[in-house]
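Please check both lines for our workbook:

___
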Amino acid sequence: MDVLCIKNAANPFTNAFGQSINCYAQNRISTRFEVIGKGTVQRKRGCEVLCDSKSTCAAFSFQDMGLTSSCVLLSSKASNDTCTVQTTIFKKKKSGCAARTNATAEFGDDPSRA
């Protein structure tokens, strides 16, 4: 089982396709989570799209490296172990999400969520 050691950290509405829209709350934690996927993206929004596409994805970490930024998708399964240094992760929320301000958001380009 691949795990990530974290080392650093209203109602849902629907889009035009009838899918629920999630948002992601930033958290600083030192908990170990099971890794369920990885991807190369251009922006944090790309990680949101990847996480939204997996029902088992509960959060992600994002490494901003410009056009070769990456994210690690995390399950909700956390271990009792902790890491020595905190990091920032983005936990999926299904309620209390603000409306997106850009119609192209569901295609991965929403400056309001950068």
